[in-house]
Amino acid sequence: MGAARKKIRLGAGAGYSGDRIEPAVELAEKGDLDYLIFECLAERTIALAQQCRLNDPAKGYDPLLEDRMVAVLPGCRRNGVRIITNMGAANPAAAAAKVRAVAARIGWPDIKVGYITGDEVLKLAATSRGRVLETETPVARLAGLVSAHAYLGAEPLVVALAGGADVVITGRTADPSLFLAPLIHEFGWALDDWNRLGQGTVVGHLLECAGQVTGGYFADPGHKDVPGLARLGFPIAEVSANGRAVITKVPGSGGAVTVRNCREQLLYEIHNPACYLTPDVTADFTRVRITEVAPDRVAVTGGTGRRRPDTLKVSLGYRDGFIGEGQISYAGPGALARARLATEIVRERLKLTGLQPAELRCDLVGVNAIFPAVHVRRKHEPAEVRVRIAGRTPTLADAVRLGNEVETLYTNGPAGGGGVTKSAREVIAIASTLIPRDAVRTGFVSTS
Amino acid sequence: MKLHEIAHARAGDKGNTSDLTVFAYDPAHFARLERELTPQRVKSHLGRMVEGEVVRYVLPGLSALKFVLTGALGGGVTRTLALDAHGKCLSSVLLGLELRDEGKKTRRSRRP
Fold it and tell me: Looking at chain A from residue 71 to 130, which residues have their Cβ under 8 Å from any Cβ of chain B?
């Protein structure tokens, strides 16, 4: 283990499944990295991937895995950069096979690819006595359960890194753990060194959404200006053995690393900042200090932690009916009145045709779709309004009919309705539960 | 004056819970934000969007106030009927909050 290493450079190659690929290539080529890490699993992504796997046992991993590997493997190989990613989604084994196939194509046949097993706990969850956190109903009574994945921590990744893997693939792993693992591996941090793990979790949390710490999700012209967002650079954390980190990016790339965007990302969706639960540690972000040490170089210290939780969080994917939606636009004088008339017509049509959604939402986009409390005065009538009607239905056929009721406004509704779009989809919703840590058996499979 | 003039904000989500953090651009304004942005004030500004409670965390070292709003995302990103399923726009909606005119308040309180 390289405990003697002075500094480790981690790069974030993706902040979500569909993220831009060129910034990851830029990091692989010019980031002077030790590790390139791709976080690509949102709450629902893995449940959808599970559906893909049911249809085709060779699928169920991230749809952009191949494109990403084709793009970054040459640079990673040349520069000795190891890859860690949760792009395995519902099928890490198939993802590993795909990465090996890509590597062979680019002349790297002896690549070592490892994958982590054990996050899939559907059988365990379906028969458990646990309760759904959101509703407190027993998990066993959740109808239409399609997937259950435990959030794994850094530990199995550390095993994979110690085994020499060039690429490590997981399914569900807590996002910051993907970044904490190489720090534990390189610096030899103990798995109960809670303050180090807390600070490492701060680093992981800052990087896991990639561009969100280098100037993405931040610009507000005239208040917070960010240069070069079309070629936004993804972040690099330069981490010392004591956990001190400097957040930076490739010189010349777009965006900016500042105290302001680092503090926005530090507190991003963590709820209680004194008690951020991960599989590795109960992290405390309240004493974190963020200081600019040079342009586009921001130092982050002071993350601490306490003992890790005894339970692991499990994401449960379940079938939750269908959503049908239709949209239509009105413009010019009287647009708002015609939009409101359109809404009334659709509501009446749903009654007349016996289509009764369990829940119905009628928005006027540009008026109240985001913030329903806004009161619109006549003199402030918008130049154009888009009607959006969405409803929850028990069947796909009903969801389709709902969209059709918006579409028929073309020839049966108010004057000048245009630009109809409609959609109908099945809802795979997510709920959570907790299971004892000991009930989950993780493993690591090395392939080469 | 709107909150937008002296603060910036970021929105996040977990399930049906929205997580909004507000930061003073100038640390000198933080005390004012702490005074004015009570959980009640935030909840009343967002109106019927928030079905549950609003919990506030105060982080003076980062000039930050975090608000955790339960039942604010129409059932959560995976099942909501809302156009903005994640509630990403809510940080900007919050920055539209009108701050009280502290000068007037001071004068009034000085009256005998």
Answer: none
Contact B83 A388 (CB under 8 A): yes
What beta strand segments (E) does A250-383 contain? 276-277, 282-284, 289-294, 297-301, 304-306, 311-331, 359-365
In this complex, the residue of A44, A269, A360 whose CB is nearest that of residue B19 is A269
Backbone torsions φ then ψ of A18, nearest 5 degrees: -95, 15
Per the CB < 8 A criterion, the answer to whether A274 and A265 are in contact is: no
Among A52-61, A209-218, A267-276, A336-345, the least confident range: A52-61
Chain A interface, best mutation among B59, B70, B73, by max A CB count within 10 A:
B59
- String of DSSP letters for A346-357: HHHHHHHTT---
Q: Which residue has the tokens 């690429």?
A: A167
pLDDT of residue B103: 64
Query: What string of DSSP letters covers A1-13?
Result: --TT--EEEEEEE
Measured torsion, CA atoms of residues A283, A147, A172, A43, in degrees rounded to the nearest 10:
-60
Please count the other Cβ atoms lying within 10 Å of the Cβ belonging to residue A332: 11
Which chain B residues are within 8 Å of A320, Cβ to Cβ?
Answer: 78-79
pLDDT digits (tens, 9 = 90+) for A120-171: 999 999 888 899 998 899 998 898 999 999 999 999 999 999 999 999 999 9
Letter for the amino acid at A444? F
A371 interfacial to chain B (CB closer than 8 Å):
yes
Task: Copy the structure tokens of residue A400.
Answer: 């389709």
Region of B75 on the Ramachandran plot (φ > 0 left; ψ -120 to 50 alpha; else beta): left
